[in-house]
Specification:
This is DUF4806 domain-containing protein. The protein is mainly alpha-helical. It contains twelve helices and two strands. The longest helix is centred in the N-terminal third of the chain and has 34 residues. The two termini are 22 Å apart.
Length: 235
């Protein structure tokens, strides 16, 4: 995973971190340790391979967080109303408090709230600003902003097994419209709905990949060489 190259308007910190993360020589301290390990007699030193793999996993984790931060900043720039629009600013602030829905009651309240004209305008602008390169990425990003994970596992497309049916709520068509707004070409409702089905279907296992990071990678990051690498990232 590589961080998307920063634009000229990005803060210098982003440019520095991008160069540091994507550089093949990102950390001289780690390179020195790898060099010392590789000097041991072995065609393919397992210690070197293990260290390189762990370094890459840490880079991926850092990049993932940086991408999230950058996306958030870009959303704020695109969505935030002008300072003169006090009313819209208050609506946006309320929207950010409402989303990451935790249960059916919150979803029902959100649908009623977002049905009001002024609120609907802010909701649509906010979701349209999510962005993405594919229909799947845009759809998943929008749903991830609307639904908390614990509630997402209680929702599906057709309402089977006693779960809430997503299309039965007005926000369904708002999501479809928001996805379409990201593309010049026509995107079918069927294609978007399939991505919605997949997203809710996979909600239960969505965070499973973090177990390895929490149990293995984070403890490793406390070791001196990793701490020094992170200190460089923080400079």
């Amino acid at each position: 995973m590589n961080l998307i190259p920063p634009t000229k308007s990005e803060p210098n910190d982003f440019i520095f971190i991008y160069n540091l993360i994507n550089s093949p020589h990102a950390n001289p301290i780690l390179e020195e340790q790898i060099g010392q390990s590789s000097s041991k007699p072995s065609g393919k030193n397992p210690e070197v391979q293990s260290l390189q793999k762990e370094i890459q996993e840490i880079r991926n984790t850092v990049v993932e967080h940086l991408v999230t931060i950058k996306e958030g900043l870009r959303e704020i720039r695109q969505v935030a109303p002008s300072s003169s629009c006090t009313y819209d600013q208050s609506i946006l602030a309320e929207l950010l408090k409402l989303i990451s829905l935790k249960n059916k009651e919150e979803l029902e309240h959100f649908c009623l709230w977002s049905a009001q004209d002024q609120n609907a305008k802010v909701v649509k602008n906010y979701l349209r600003a999510v962005g993405g390169t594919t229909v799947g990425k845009v759809t998943r990003s929008i749903l991830a902003k609307l639904f908390g994970r614990q509630f997402a596992v209680q929702v599906n497309y057709n309402g089977a097994n006693g779960k809430a049916s997503f299309p039965s709520f007005p926000i369904h068509m708002v999501v479809i419209d928001s996805v379409r707004r990201n593309f010049d070409c026509k995107v079918s409702e069927k294609e978007i709905n399939q991505e919605i089905i997949n997203w809710f279907r996979n909600a239960k296992d969505r965070n499973g990949g973090r177990q390895h990071i929490n149990k293995v990678i984070y403890p490793k990051m406390r070791e001196p060489c990793y701490i020094q690498m992170l200190m460089r990232l923080d400079q």
